[in-house]
Amino acid sequence: MKLTHLIYVSMFAAIMGALGVLPPIPLGFSPVPITMQTLGVMLAGCVLGAHLGARYAALSQLLFLLLVAAGAPLLSGGRGGLGVFFTPSAGYFIGWVVGAFVIALLCQRMKNVSFIKMMLANIIGGVLVIYLFGVPVQAWMMQIAVSEAAVLSLAFLPGDLLKVAVASLLAVRLYHAVPFKKEAPAAR
């Protein structure tokens, strides 16, 4: 991995930490709060995927979660440590890594970048994939049916769709402003 790639991976892990400074919005009926950190997942997927590749987007989220596991209080509300991986939110954290990878993979395959294409990538990876991991783990940790956890998760949808729109808009703007482009394969 080149140093510049490592810097961009680290930068998006830092963005996740910065978004964790914003306080969580607790829901009275669910132990999983609303946070702005899924916006960071979507941005990492879109920007790193469009320029460097899917593995770099996933690595940025993995680096972030490793810092959290090491005890850094980077999650919304100042949470950190191994204990957070044994809460109803744990599946969503795992979903961040896979979601960023899926978003990036979809963005990598885009011939022309557009707001609508970015929105679709963010809905698929940033909402559906994250929920695919988050809902079953939430159900297991709360000892409820997956269908009940899915109904509880409907409360997240309006905010997540707003984050999809914001991330897509920012990603399209950043696509042309970021100073790195995909590198041509080296000649042999």
Automatic annotation (TrEMBL):
The membrane-topology field of this record reads: Multi-pass membrane protein
Question: Which portions of this protein are annotated as coiled-coil regions?
Answer: none
Q: What superkingdom heads the lineage?
A: Bacteria
Say yes or no: keyword Nucleotide-binding present.
Answer: no
Kindly state which keywords UniProt assigns to this record, in alphabetical order.
Cell membrane, Membrane, Transmembrane, Transmembrane helix, Transport
Stored InterPro entries: BioY (IPR003784)
Annotated transmembrane regions: 7-25, 31-50, 57-76, 82-107, 119-137, 149-172
- Does the entry feature the keyword ATP-binding, yes or no? no
Q: What is its main location?
A: membrane
Q: What Pfam family is a match, any one?
A: BioY
Location of the protein in the cell: Cell membrane
Family label: Belongs to the BioY family.
Query: What is the protein named?
Result: Biotin transporter
